[in-house]
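Re: duplicated header lines in exported structure tokens

Our pipeline writes sequence and tokens for each protein into one text file. With two proteins the header for the second block appears twice in some exports. Here is an export where it did not happen, for reference. First protein block:
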Amino acid sequence: MQIPEHVLKRKGSTTTSGVPKEVRTLLDLGLIETVNLAEWLVVDQESLARNLFQKENWNFLLKPLEESFALMKIKTAPKKMEGLGMVLAQGFPTKAQFENTLRRLKEHRSDIVRSWACFMIGKRIELSLKESLKRIQPLAADRNMSVREAAWLAIRPRIVTQLRESLRLLMGFSLHRDANIRRFASEITRPRGVWCNHIPALKENPQLGLPLLEPLRCDDSIYVRNSVGNWLNDASKTKPGWVQDVCKLWEKESPTKETAYIIRRGLRTLRKKQA
């Protein structure tokens, strides 16, 4: 199907109600990607999944799909993605089936479908943490921000329960040449984070995450710096003294504009309280 030029070059509506019907239809058919949060929120994921399953001859997944959505108490976009990840993870039980399906999802033009791949990995209990992170890494570097967000959301429950191993394995991500992957290392371990459960151990002992943050303290990517600043800001809500000490040390050891930016962002909640 030929996608109209005005659709391909759209900036996207700033409100969900403003997303054109033409764009909604193409999103639900999986023929285009979302370009912003408003579009991401309006995608009918159940309809998109039904279209995909029928096209791929995965009709055996239609009933589990229907049952999953019927049982879903909270139908936010992330919850729908999580539910679909479970349907897909359970629907392809053998390793060969799983890997082939994962490849198909990762290659799809729809960012929503690629996001399901993230949650399919997250729900695959047979995978070790190391194997899960290996498979999620390409998705953490996806061209679309929504997939990059889904990547850390999908794996974060494993991070919470296997924190020390996670911090060790994520060091490779923190040192990666791709800024998206470096940002993943910071974002997935934020003590509080957004749209996700907190990590109690890092709220009480944020120093555990310091080796992961150190290589990022003067990162040349604003995308990474924002995440590191947010990480410190999260930690400041339970361990303000620790965050202040880290910022003082970084200010002394790394007197760059990049580090200064991270420090300002990391101390913003504490400074508001002092104002």
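Second protein block, exported in the same file:
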Amino acid sequence: MGLPLTLPYVILTLKEFIIVWLNQVLYYNEIYPLEIYDKLKSFDTIVYQSRNPALNKYVEDLVNEFLQILVNGDGHDNGGKVNQILILLYDVKSNKTKKKYVVKFNEMINLGASINDLNFLYLVPEKDSESLLEPVIDIPSFTWNEIYSQLKSILFSQIEELKVQKNGSENDDLFFKVIVDLEDSINLNVNINAATNSQHSNWVKLSVTSEDSEQRKTKVVPIGEVSVGFICIDIYNEYTKSVNA
């Protein structure tokens, strides 16, 4: 890969991965009509990408805000305090969660002190190339080949699992919501978005209810892990017992 190994480019690569991961979950669970998706390649893997402008903007805005939180926390130099990001698929009639898709972040470090801002997330890279060139990463074994190899492997495993569950799943009327599990010290009701000068108004803090904490019969399917440099993530899926039982 010809790109310089800098923190902004690595963050953009993580952005691409999360967007692709989310789109595959929506596609294989047929949350939206399959006709709105095109087949393309990402991480040297065949994936499906929506061509609906409104949906694509929603997903990109969501992932951009998530990366702001991952890197900068709530803007007070307390990044690295995201535990996991989850896609919950729930039955719209019963409001019961049927499936969970989880990216868990392990030992994430605070990157906020290493980068001035994340404006490059919102700009066309070709027009903002200077902000992508620093800082250069110098970590043993942290190379583009290793980054792409591990992300490609875990993406392939996720897609194969999505195909399996699609063939055996019930025809529930499902929709989705995205939840970010943070450490309690993070407060998203503050202004941290330097590019848009706006608050995280799209995020709502949830409390754990007795219903949420009920013991449910579930099936957990580990997908795999990525461990390269400061990117240490586990991916797993969780289904209610009736799904793929």
